[in-house]
Amino acid sequence: MLLVRRGHPPGEGLWSVPGGRVEPGESDAEAVVREVREETGLTVAVGRLAGTVDRPAPGGAVYEIRDYLAEVTGGTLTAGDDAAEARWFGPGELPRLPLVPGLLEVLSGWALIDPPPGSSATG
């Protein structure tokens, strides 16, 4: 799984999937391609929606996060934009990483990884 270590808030220093805001007039797929390229140097072909989740945002707002599966089609892996680091990890490595809150549970709930040990999550 491709993760980036955030270089800025929110989640500075924590690992997460690449992502960011959808710009006005931009489709989700266009945003995924742009954000992955900016944060990792990789070009991707966007696949199906993996899932959605709402997370608290500053000022009482709520971020609606839509994550998509994608296939790398080119580029060279390098941290860029607001990512301090970009790396590939196996699913078994994720529980040992300092992840943004809730990421492990969400990925498990979407059946993208096995449930964390000791959790009641099902895939």
TrEMBL record:
Signal sequence interval, chain numbering: none
Record's keyword terms, sorted: Hydrolase
GO molecular function term, any single one: hydrolase activity
Residue span(s) of domain Nudix hydrolase: 1-112
Transcription recorded as keyword: no
InterPro entries assigned: Nudix_hydrolase, NUDIX_hydrolase-like_dom_sf, NUDIX_hydrolase_CS, NUDIX_hydrolase_dom
Any matching Pfam family: NUDIX
Family the UniProt entry places it in: Belongs to the Nudix hydrolase family.
Protein name per Swiss-Prot or TrEMBL: Nudix hydrolase domain-containing protein
